[in-house]
Amino acid sequence: MEQLVAKKYVKALIEAVGEKKIAAAEKALAVVAGAFKDPKFAEVIVSPEVSKAQREELIISLLGEKPDAKLVNFVKTLGIHNRFGLIPEIVTLLQKELQRRSNKYEGVVESKKPIDKKLLGELEKSLSKYVDATVVLHPVKSERDGIKVMIEDLGLEASFSKERVASDMINHILKAL
């Protein structure tokens, strides 16, 4: 439900600020969304003891020195409808929309051992060709004995493990006999 409501606000924000300023609006709102990670900030934003005007001022102060007037109006609209808590979801959806429009997606590569930059580059190039988009991968250390590639926004997940390869080879040999 929250995501459906947030989608409407994302669409309205894109229409309000325009194509040229949407990236700047996303960066400003990302700062606010980051503030939600602080439990005290999140508590203040949802607290009925703090007036809407004070919460609105706090959020607008996080938008930067001279925030875009349309972005300020957007925050005020969120305040009118008591939707400040949607800001992190709005930022997430806005980032996905910007990725879709630029045809550039980010993903992660999980492995036990550090991945060589050259190998990571080749993997990005291959995946970019496969999905017909620019793919940027970030290495993440895990306890997995193999490699797992995930690009969430594309719904792409691939994994390779030593056990699975060995198991598949044994099954293939057994079938051949």
Keywords, separated by commas or semicolons:
single chain; 177 residues; alpha+beta; Peroxidase, domain 1; hypothetical protein PF0899 fold; 2 domains
- In the CATH hierarchy, the architecture of the largest domain is Orthogonal Bundle
Shape: elongated
- The percent of residues in helical segments reads 55-70%
User: Considering the protein shown, what is the CATH homologous superfamily of the largest domain?
Assistant: N-terminal domain of the delta subunit of the F1F0-ATP synthase
The residue ranges in which pLDDT falls below 50 over 5 or more consecutive positions are none
Report the β-strand fraction as a percent range. Answer: 15-25%
Largest sheet: 4 strands, mixed
Structural class: alpha+beta
Question: If you average the pLDDT, what whole number results?
Answer: 87
Walk me through the structure.
The chain is α+β, with helices and mostly antiparallel strands. It folds into 2 domains: 98 residues, N-terminal domain of the delta subunit of the F1F0-ATP synthase (Peroxidase, domain 1, Orthogonal Bundle); 74 residues, hypothetical protein PF0899 fold, CATH 3.30.2320. The chain is built from 8 helices and 4 strands, in the order H-H-H-H-H-H-E-H-E-E-E-H. Strands 2-1-3-4 form a 4-stranded mixed β-sheet. Helix 1 packs across helix 6 and helix 4 runs antiparallel to helix 5.
